[in-house]
Design goal:
858 residues, alpha+beta, 15-stranded antiparallel beta sheet, binds cholesterol
Length: 858
């Protein structure tokens, strides 16, 4: 160790000198065979990689005092860290290894400012090293660090230090564990004592809590946990369930191999095809002219012919010439995608077994997932109630660690308003992962402010303590749909999707059973569900506070996504219109399908307090399992009282697992809200990409700041787009928006909110006032709403056929469709926009649509 010590420079110091627990340098024992994917690709590399032995936890004698474990010295300095997927290369990062936790920041200054980019509990990670290339990999499952030291000496120092800290942390964990068990027995006794009226001994339990384990754990919490642990048999059930799954999976594997041997193997399995597409990032864009070697993001956009040519080539290599040589491409793909044609009775039997077993595995995994989520929830509740208790009993507010000048930072101001203390929240490495940021390097980074994880936790806690807004009093509108939604789990999406390569998913014609009884014009109106935020904005004098409400409104439009991933809205036909008058909310909206290629839906809403308009169009990016929707139009809001004109972009919406029933939606990216009338206030909102699969805790995070002209932060806010937004910098910190509770039985009704249920309601007094092009009069959508799925399906085909005919006729005449209520214009940046031409409401009143000529759409 000493010899290494002398080679340290300032940036690579062992802060506390030579540690007392001399780390045992475990000779790497076996070749790396598992762990990180990234290192598996070459045999040479596998050979040079070594997995460091698992450490044996040494229980110190008299080890019930954690202070007996000597904390190894801090190790800090620069290392190279591999960049986040999908970016390539390495960047220099400053790492600090302290008390078993490895943290990293951009540079040393950031460390001193407490700006941590990621952290990991080194004892939980598999550590692999490569002496030849000075590489150290830490793989904690969810979090994966690839690091490289600049010199061999530094490499050895880090490895040695990491070893010491791993050992320390494991020992500490063992102590915490025994302390915890001890506390549980204490608190069980205390519980007993309490029941016996012996309050004195309950107090003992409190002070005898696991100092250092659960921070100042109190009796109430401990007895709650112990009671829950005692009555909870779930973990055992989980283990059993998982064991069963394991067996089933081996059996499944055997059956699949048997089936393959029996039926002969196929060129590609569906899984392989998905993977290939994913690798190639096959874009579902319209085919480009043959020179389509255009770069989109970091990957190549393939035209349909190229892409499919690619698929038919087993080498995924030069593709440009292949288009012509593949005769019937859709048929080819279809044949690859349809389920393997099993002919023999034996094969059929195996196939049935495979299905049955897969379902069993699925059911098991679901139940395990559910159990674990419940346990986690319980733990979190206990944890939170403990924190609440703590801060309520503390005389001093939580310590503000980094005092700052100027506007308050999240960390500072949060400490004043939130219950949870920072230390507890930052402690868990599993919450701070590196995989946030867009999957696509071409789009803006969605990595938010450092420390966002704990900030969001706090925001979340505050939001959950805010009562739901009072449910609007009866509007006289319907509160449910006439019929529940059809089960569409049987519809084979795979074939539909692959048969429509080159088209927008949202615009692809699908069986009516996949549709929801609202269309994309109505969904534009749905973004006004929380229009009261715009009313508030128009009545807020302070421009920065006003911006907070505009931001909350921009976020609120995304909240429906939580419940709306099983059905797809109807595609409006060209010329279709939709009006929505909401006296109760004080606005009226008109929307129209203004363009077919590319499909564009435009809308405009007016109220005493605001105007709102946008034209919606988007591109798709298909990654094999998920589909990214990249909207291109801007959203506009004007507030009459202050003459503001706000404009903002939309973020990416990703449909994860688009082909399966595990589908869910995620939004990520950055929104910038500008006031075109004055540049003294802008707002940036980050929709954070969730950092890893399967965890609910980091899903749907949003963080935002309101900036003044000089770029100083005036307000900060954050939360989750499905739970609400809290702003702690307002004169009275508060939850600025919280979604309305879902109506009863919403799952039976397409996951619709009450507002969504009202969108397609057609009342007798309204009917004669609507133009015949109004979506409410569209028969197939109405049939679906009434539960007549087959009829809706037939009608939908008819309507689509009428549209095609109309288009053909127009082309024959050399004419172009002219939208009736919107006109094309250019915005201040020269972008095409669709603005209202102001005729709709006038015509409606005089002479009334019944007396005007309306195009026939159905
Ligand atoms: C294959 C089918 C059944 C899967 C379901 C697809 C659904 C979830 C898709 C189809 C069209 C999609 C919508 C298309 C456009 C937008 C505008 C964007 O700014 C927010 C997301 C939003 C509103 C999408 C949400 C998800 C969506 C509704």
């Amino acid at each position: 160790m000493d010899s290494y010590g002398s080679s340290l420079n300032r940036s690579q110091s062992l802060a506390s000198g030579l540690e007392k627990t001399s780390p045992t340098w475990n000779k790497p024992s076996h070749s790396r065979s598992s762990s990180t994917l990234s290192s598996r690709h070459s045999r040479q590399i596998i050979k040079d990689w070594e997995v460091i032995d698992d450490l044996h936890v040494e229980m110190h004698s008299g080890g019930d005092n954690p202070q007996d474990i000597t904390t190894p010295g801090i190790c800090e300095g620069y290392l190279l860290k591999r960049r986040k997927w999908p970016l390539k290369g390495w960047h220099k990062r400053y790492f600090v290894l302290e008390a078993g936790i490895l943290r990293y920041s951009k540079n040393q200054q950031d460390v001193s400012r407490g700006r941590v980019q990621g952290s990991l509990d080194v004892s939980l990670a598999v550590m692999s090293i490569n002496k030849k290339s000075n590489r150290i990999d830490l793989d904690a499952g969810d979090i994966l660090y690839h690091m490289k030291a600049k010199s061999h000496e530094l490499f050895y120092i880090w490895v040695t230090k990491l070893q010491a800290h791993r050992l320390f942390k494991k020992n500490e964990a063992a102590h915490v564990h025994s302390g915890f068990i001890q506390t549980l027995s204490y608190s069980a006794a205390a519980g007993q004592a309490q029941r016996n009226g012996d309050l004195g001994s309950a107090g003992v339990a409190d002070s005898a809590g696991v100092s250092g384990a659960l921070p100042s754990a109190n009796a109430a919490v401990n007895s709650k946990v112990s009671a829950w642990l005692q009555q909870s048999h779930n973990p055992d059930t989980c283990v059993q369930e998982l064991n069963r799954c394991h067996l089933d999976l081996s059996e499944l594997n055997r059956l699949i191999q048997k089936l393959q041997a029996l039926e002969g193997s196929q060129a590609f399995t569906n899984g392989e095809l998905q993977r290939i597409i994913s690798i190639q990032n096959l874009s579902l864009e319209k085919p480009k002219k043959p020179k389509s070697g255009k770069m989109w993001g970091h990957s190549r956009t393939l035209s349909r012919v190229e892409a499919l040519g690619m698929l038919s080539s087993s080498h995924l290599s030069s593709s440009s010439h292949l288009g012509a040589s593949v005769p019937s491409i859709p048929d080819y793909v279809y044949s690859q995608l349809s389920p393997p044609t099993v002919t023999s009775p034996e094969g059929k039997k195996i196939q049935q077994d495979i299905c049955a077993m897969s379902l069993r595995v699925l059911a098991s995994l679901k139940s395990v997932h559910e159990t674990l989520s419940q346990e986690r929830q319980k733990l979190q509740e206990v944890w939170e109630s403990n924190n609440i208790h703590q801060s309520n009993t503390l005389a001093e507010p939580a310590v503000v660690r980094h005092s700052s000048h100027g506007p308050p930072s999240v960390a500072d101001s949060a400490a004043e308003y939130f219950d949870a203390s920072d230390d507890i929240l930052c402690g868990s490495s599993s919450e701070v992962s590196e995989e946030s940021g867009l999957s696509d390097g071409s789009t803006t980074n969605s990595e938010p402010e450092e420390g966002h994880v704990s900030a969001t936790r706090k925001y979340r806690a505050s939001i959950s303590r805010t009562p739901n807004s009072v449910v609007h009093k009866s509007t006289g509108r319907r509160t449910t749909l006439p019929a529940p939604c059809p089960d569409n789990s049987h519809v084979g999406l795979m074939a539909i999707l692959y048969n429509n390569i080159g088209k927008d998913l949202a615009r692809v014609s699908m069986p009516a059973a996949l549709n929801e009884p609202v269309n994309l014009l109505q969904r534009l109106c749905e973004e006004l569900e929380y229009s009261e935020l715009l009313d508030t904005a128009n009545n807020t004098q302070d421009p920065y506070q006003r911006m907070v409400y505009i931001a909350a409104f921009a976020i609120s439009g995304y909240s429906t996504a939580t419940f709306r991933n099983r059905y797809k809205p109807f595609n409006p036909v060209l010329g279709e219109t939709y009006e929505c008058i909401r006296e109760d909310r004080g606005f009226r909206l008109i929307s129209e399908q203004v363009c077919h290629h590319p499909p564009i839906s435009a809308c405009h809403a007016d109220s005493e307090n605001f105007s709102f308009w946008q034209d919606q169009r988007w591109k798709n990016k298909f990654w094999g399992k998920s589909l990214e929707i990249l909207p291109t139009g801007m959203v506009n809001v004007t507030l009459p009282r202050y003459g503001d004109h706000y404009e903002w972009n939309k973020v990416v919406t990703c449909i994860h697992n688009v082909l399966s029933q595990q589908r869910y939606l995620e939004h990520y990216g950055e929104v910038t809200i500008r006031n075109l009338k004055s540049n003294n206030c802008t707002c940036k909102i980050t929709f954070v990409k969730s950092r890893y699969w399967g965890s609910d805790t980091n899903k749907n995070e949003v963080q935002g700041t309101v900036l003044d002209q000089s770029g100083s932060v005036i307000h900060r806010f954050g939360g989750l787009w499905h739970e609400g937004i809290f702003c702690d910098t307002l004169p009275t910190p508060k939850c600025v928006w919280k979604p309305n509770p879902q109506p009863k039985d919403y799952l039976l009704y397409y996951g619709f909110s009450t507002f969504a249920m009202e969108l397609n309601e057609l009342t007798p007094d309204l009917k004669p006032l609507l133009p015949s092009t109004d979506s409410r009069l569209r028969p197939d959508q109405r049939m679906l709403e009434e539960g007549k799925v087959d009829e809706a399906d037939r009608k939908k085909d008819e309507i689509e056929e009428i549209q095609r005919e109309r288009r053909k006729e127009l082309t024959k005449k050399g004419e172009e469709h002219v939208p009736r209520f919107f006109k094309k214009a250019k915005d201040s940046c020269g972008r095409d926009v669709w603005l209202t031409n102001g005729t709709y409401w006038k015509l409606r009143e005089n002479p009334g649509f019944a007396k005007t000529e309306n195009i026939v759409l159905w």
